[in-house]
């Protein structure tokens, strides 16, 4: 089935899912992507760098500039591939390198919108298979050759405007340097650790944010405070596509909350030597943890790709990028 046919089918399913109170939204459009300009960026392998790492001068030479409100993008946009090389080889901030893993992935992003929907198209080259020596069969997630995710900041998460998704990445997350031992996880309150690890979170959800001990994972604020943060917009919206076919939607606050959601529709397939993934999402937020998108405004986004059947932190990520709906941004969405 062609990408156009799959897009048409999912657009129909999405439209039927968006019926509320007897009134349906207009069906999503079929976008002529050939007429939409592409933004080009580079996703790079981040190793075990975390938000705490970024804020520590002995780890990160740009810590002072970041604290003075410089964006990561402003300093590093021209050297993303070089940074990826240092980390993917284990030369810097990586204790378990995967032999042969590519350091960076070039990504083209196209975006458009109409009165009701945001449309995005992501294209990147498929890479060679590099078996993971510490995963059975060499594949960490055998069911998904790729996963593509995007976070959106609505402007209420303190460091997201400068760091993008890094504000949710911490030293005590899964497979990171100060990740808690499995035996300690049962004492946590306010987060679900049954999977055996701590997921991403934003610092606003903790009662402390210690960048020296880097042990903030269990310092979770009371549920009433978390509810207020969610209502007030202090979260990162998260959208994810799995090549096995799933479209997932959620947010990051005290932890990652992610589930299947018919309000977001992804399609994806290999097209020649490249992966092409498209996304349709309503502009208007209709549930907690979703950002309300408006024409004339810009939103910071972070994009990540898990390629070659990887999972967890073994992905490639973007620097902080701005998505502008007929507004300033590295990614410009144009009204259709």
Instruction: List low-pLDDT spans.
Output: 1-9, 15-22
In sequence order, what are the helices and strands, one letter per element? HEEEHHHHEEEHHEEEEEEEEE
**Total number of β-strand segments?**
15
- Please tell me the overall pLDDT: 93
Treating each run of at least 4 consecutive H or I residues as one helix, how many helices? 7
Tally of separate domains = 1
- CATH classification class: Mainly Beta
CATH T-level topology: Immunoglobulin-like
How would you sum up the global shape? globular
Output the radius of gyration. 19 Å
For the record, the CATH architecture stands as Sandwich
Helix content: 10-25%
Question: How does this structure look, described?
Answer:
The chain has 7 helices and 15 strands. It is of the alpha+beta class and 336 residues long. It has one domain (3-20, 36-335): Immunoglobulin-like, CATH 2.60.40.1190. Strands 3, 4, 5, 6, 7, 8, 9, 10, 11, 12, 13, 14 and 15 form a 13-stranded mixed β-sheet that branches. The two termini are 26 Å apart.
Keywords for this entry:
globular, alpha+beta, Immunoglobulin-like, 13-stranded mixed beta sheet, 336 residues
Task: Show the helix and strand layout.
Blueprint: H1 3-17, E1 19-20, E2 23-24, E3 39-44, H2 51-54, H3 63-67, H4 72-76, H5 80-88, E4 104-113, E5 117-125, E6 147-153, H6 160-163, H7 223-232, E7 236-242, E8 247-252, E9 256-260, E10 264-271, E11 274-282, E12 298-306, E13 316-317, E14 321-325, E15 331-335
Parallel strand pairs: 4-15, 14-15
Antiparallel strand pairs: 1-2, 3-4, 4-5, 5-11, 6-7, 6-12, 7-8, 8-9, 10-11, 12-13, 12-14
């Amino acid at each position: 089935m062609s990408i156009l046919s799959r897009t048409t089918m999912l657009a129909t399913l999405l439209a039927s899912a968006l019926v509320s109170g007897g009134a349906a939204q207009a069906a999503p459009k079929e976008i002529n992507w050939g007429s939409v300009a592409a933004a080009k960026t580079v996703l790079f392998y981040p190793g075990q760098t975390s938000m705490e790492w970024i804020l520590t001068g002995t780890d990160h030479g740009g810590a002072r500039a970041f604290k003075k409100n410089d964006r990561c993008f402003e300093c590093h946009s021209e050297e993303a591939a070089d940074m990826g090389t240092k980390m993917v080889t284990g030369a810097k901030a990586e204790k378990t390198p995967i032999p042969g893993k590519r350091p960076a992935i070039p990504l083209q992003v196209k975006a458009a919108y109409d009165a009701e929907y945001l449309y995005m198209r992501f294209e990147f080259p498929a890479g060679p298979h590099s078996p993971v020596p510490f995963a059975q069969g060499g594949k960490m997630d055998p069911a998904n050759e790729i996963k593509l995710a995007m976070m959106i900041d609505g402007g209420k998460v303190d460091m997201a405007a400068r760091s993008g998704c890094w504000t949710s990445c911490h030293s005590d997350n899964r497979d990171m340097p100060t990740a808690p031992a499995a035996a300690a996880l049962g004492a946590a309150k306010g987060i679900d650790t049954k999977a055996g690890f701590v997921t991403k979170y934003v610092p606003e959800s903790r009662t402390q944010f210690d960048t020296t001990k880097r042990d903030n994972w269990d310092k979770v604020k009371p549920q009433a405070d978390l509810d207020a943060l969610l209502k007030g917009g202090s979260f990162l919206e998260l959208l994810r596509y799995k090549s096995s076919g799933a479209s997932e939607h959620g947010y990051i606050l005290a932890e990652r909350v992610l589930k299947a959601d018919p309000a977001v529709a992804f399609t994806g397939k290999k097209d020649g030597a490249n992966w092409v993934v498209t996304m349709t999402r309503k502009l208007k937020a209709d549930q907690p943890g979703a950002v309300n998108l408006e024409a004339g405004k810009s939103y910071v986004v972070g994009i990540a790709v898990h390629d070659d059947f990887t999972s967890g932190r073994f992905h490639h990520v973007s620097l902080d990028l701005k998505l502008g709906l007929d507004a300033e941004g590295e990614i410009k969405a144009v009204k259709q």
